[in-house]
Amino acid sequence: MEEKVKSELKKIFGFSQFRGNQEPIVDNLLSQKNTFVIMPTGAGKSLCYQLPAVVSDGTAIVISPLIALMKNQVDQLNAIGINAHFLNSTLNKSEATKVKNEVLSKKTKLLYVAPESLTKEENVTFLKSAHLSFVAIDEAHCISEWGHDFRPEYRKIKSIVAQIAPNLPIIALTATATPKVQQDIQRNLQMEEADLFKSSFNRTNLYYEVRPKLKNESKKQLIKFIKSHKGKSGIIYCLSRKKVEEIAQLLQVNQINAAPYHAGLESAVRIKNQDDFLNEELDVIVATIAFGMGIDKPDVRYVIHYDVPKSLEGYYQETGRAGRDGLEGHCLMFYKYEDIVKLDKFNKDKPVTERENARVLLQEMAAYAETGVCRRKFILNYFGETFEKDCGYCDNCKRDREIFEGMTYIQTALEAALQTNERFGLEHLVKVIIGEPTEYVTSYKHDQLPVFGKGKEVPEKYWTSIIRQAMIFDLLEKDIESFGVLKLTPKGKEFIEAPYSVNLYKDHDYATEDPSSTPDVPITAGIAYDEKLFELLKAERKKVAKSKGLPPYV
Ligand code: ADP
Ligand code: MG
Ligand code: ZN
Fold first, then answer.
1. Which residues, 6 or more positions from 345, have their beta carbon under 8 angstroms from its beta carbon?
2. Nearest CA to ligand 1 atom 13
3. Residues within 5 A (CB) of ion ligand 3
4. What residues contact 154, with CB distance under 8 A and at least 6 apart?
5. Which one of 25, 296, 372, 530 has the largest count of C-beta atoms within 10 Å of its C-beta?
6. Which residues form ligand 1's pocket by a CB distance below 6 Å?
7. What pTM was computed for the model?
8. Is 0.95 exceeded by the ipTM?
């Protein structure tokens, strides 16, 4: 990489080093190559296009899904002296004209554009006459119906960009790419040939924990948890505005310095609460998921889901807001299956496929909450990563788990997949094993399969859990090309040839689990909570912010 680029990193952005894959990504984009970036939340995706934009001739187009996010980024860039603008529906005609003139005069380095504005005829015409450097598509998972944030306009980006300038390099970035979503994005953008930079999703400093949600007990636990983190910042997520208000009040009457945040609040109040949280006037913000995208407060010490989220992707993104500074982050979720049922009911008027997609995401969420497997293993598997050992830093790893010998179960599961010619997904495979002749199963001549009904002594729920574990242990894998049917991996084929003993973990049965038996959170070397270091980092940040004329956490 040219020295100039590195020196701009320090000079403009104030960073002495690249993080993770940033350097090769910047290099790749600057060599005019299509670049696909998958990095967890907080890892520093923005820099991957901001720095190349600054050192390139012309203007980079940045497509971003949220108007608030755009404004936030443009403000930050302007504050450090970079000429950046946005083009979206909040601008009136003369403001839009002013922005366009800036771009045409070649002063603007980054132009943030909402997907809706990009598709407008007049803007296409304008962009055709501009001198452009590349196109960045942030939050690229919005392209996929299989993700959790689908935005139909995102699917039009590729054809518009092709009209504007067919040979411009494209960089697409996302934090939520399950293999399925990743494939969907690449196809839609015709970026199958792009260079892929995928970072590990493992956030080693986050502790994952799930507790059963019980009416009053959980509220007590919530208060106790927050009080034991006195003076530290935390986010509590709830699903509805009403619940947000209720919990915020509950905390306030318990002398906790908390305030609500949701889209139903007057915008002045909402902004004040957010600023107070960022500036440490408030310890706790109780919020719907409207809060957080693009918010960058490095010292959030815990994220609590008082209600279960709609997908594991959403969960991971929200918990990802804890411990961005690399120090302790505790991710606690209160869970009951009834919440999953409730969420599913909310979707009842949606089109069938949409409801089915949402249901699959919900079932994955429930499976995560109920699993006895190391939580990190479960999550990373969901994101297509294999994580061999137990992490030792989640509640499941910390408790005495019920283990059972799984060899024969796994054998049955793998046989079922083989005998149905690897054409069945999880749900139907389980039906075959328990011998339930659903319409789908009978259409495959189930009665001729030796494995049909072989596992009928064991409840359906257990089989579901066993097959999931076979996936986590890398014996079965989802074939994303064909609707997630389960196929044997090479390791699975070896297992069938020569089966061996495996430990399986029983799922939680929260109905009978003692809710007060939460394991102690271990302090592990390297991620120990260090009060002094924390204060130092905080002082450092304040100094940097001040020197740039920014409030401490913008
Ligand atoms: P993402 O979009 O991946 O969620 P951001 O781009 O918002 O993450 O960056 C998260 C935080 O990391 C920001 O505070 C940003 O300033 C900081 N950051 C990014 N790159 C670096 C770096 N090379 N060194 C130090 N901090 C960085
Ligand atoms: Mg981002
Ligand atoms: Zn673990």
1. none
2. 44
3. 374, 376, 391, 394, 397
4. 63, 65, 115, 137, 140, 142, 143
5. 25
6. 15, 17-19, 22, 39, 41-47, 296
7. 0.80
8. yes
